[in-house]
Amino acid sequence: MNEINDIINQIDEEVVGKFLQNSETKVSFSKDYEKHEYDYEWLSVMEEVMPYLFNIVKAPKKFIMNEEEVVKVELAKKVTVESIKHLTQHTNLIQDYDPEKGDVKPSKILNINKEETFDMYENRFIYSLFQNMKLYLSVRQGDMLKGSSLRDIQTLKYNGSTKLGTKKVNISLELGFSDIRFENGSDGGMTIAQRVERIHNDLADCMSSEFYQNLDKLHIPLVRSPIRKTNVILKNPNFQKAVELWNYMERNPEVKEDNVVDKKNIEDDKELKEKFDSSYYVNYSLMDNLSDKKKEEEKVNKFYIRKLLEKFNEENKDVTLKDFKKIITDEYKEIKEKQEKHERKILSELTRTARRHASAAQKCIDLLK
User: Fold this and answer.
1) pLDDT at 1 (0 to 100)
2) What share of the chain is helix, strand, coil (3-state, %, to 5)?
3) How many CB atoms lie within 10 A of CB 224?
4) What gap in Å lies between CA 277 and CA 13, rounded to an integer?
5) Which residues contact 276 (CB under 8 A, 6 or more apart)?
């Protein structure tokens, strides 16, 4: 990094100008960006409310309905207090009366049939909620079950050539990245499709219950907003959650979706080209400095070797080239042998040390056993 900074700080604009004057460069940029994002808040809301709906279905509230009918005495199933009160108010139904015994013989009497039914407002509300949930789920099927996705692929290409004296400098650069993601809206290891299927199954269980089927046979009218604030709806936590879901679906009837598409193909943009033209020179300078460093190292090595040879030659003028080569070869072999011997000694010592440690470790293990 310091080397790059040094090059940038030492840049001579005149030199750069000459470098780029004969340059032929070309830059291109392409972008392929697509984002499809869905809001799955509605699914989380349904998942949260489903247990409360199961509570309602498992222990539904019933209404006792009294069906009153005046029938012949012999057809009456049960004489109740209400039947006696009714007879005292309708004396025309008395057929005979024995004042001595106090016996009353009616010709007809009030018969009351008591029947339990689910047909009450709160239950009709839940029945209507199930219908709305079924419709709400159906309009959210399809593409959204594939999950949200992001596709971001960008590519930049830069090519150039120039002449610098007798040198011909070429550059070819391709830079690209890709970011492709698929969000399946997983929650607890389940995909969106699996979560929706679970809601479908839970709803099907509720709609196959005795509670729902009984109301379905009665062909009850569906409840519409605003929901009546009865005591049960206001105070029962299961019904409170049901109302929350009802209100949420009314507030959010449409699928929330965010789609963004951005595709670009840019050729030789002036500003972009100027930036990469400047980096062209910096890259060349880095390579040129690297080459100069190697040359400098070679010069230093040759300088020291030459100095050694000059000194040796002054002190040993009678040594021939053949003898000199033999001396160099023998000395080189001796140095290499010493190095190898030293390395073998170090390796041997390391091996003994490792064995001692291994033996001590084994003794510790044996003692622990």
Assistant:
1) 46
2) 55, 25, 20
3) 8
4) 13
5) 25, 27, 158, 173
Please state, in angstroms and rounded to a whole number, the distance separating the CA atoms of residues 26 and 269. 9
H/E/C letters for each residue in 94-136?
Answer: EEEEECCCCEEEECEEEEEEEEEECCCHHHHHHHHHHHHHHHH
Give the tens place of pLDDT for each residue, 197-241: 999 999 999 999 999 999 999 898 999 999 999 999 999 999 999
Residues 6+ apart with CB under 8 A from 14: none
Q: Tokens standing for 112?
A: 């009351």
* Model confidence, pTM: 0.51
User: Residues of the chain whose pLDDT is less than 70?
Assistant: 1-18, 63-84, 86-87, 91, 93-98, 100-107, 109-117, 142-147, 183-188, 288-312, 354, 357-369
To 5 degrees, how large is the angle CA 222–CA 64–CA 81? 150
What are the CA-CA distances from residue 177 to residues 76, 95, 155, 174 (Å)?
88, 102, 7, 10
CB within 8 Å of 244: residues ≥ 6 apart: 45, 49
Residue with tokens 């033999």: 326
Residues 6+ away with beta carbon under 8 Å from 152: 32, 33, 177, 178, 179, 180
Q: How far apart are CA 62 and CA 118, in angstroms?
A: 5
d(CA 123, CA 116): 13
Query: Is 252 in a helix, a strand, or coil?
Result: coil
Map residue 63 onto helix, strand or coil: strand
Type and span of the H or E element at 267? strand 257-267
Place of tokens 């230093």: 300
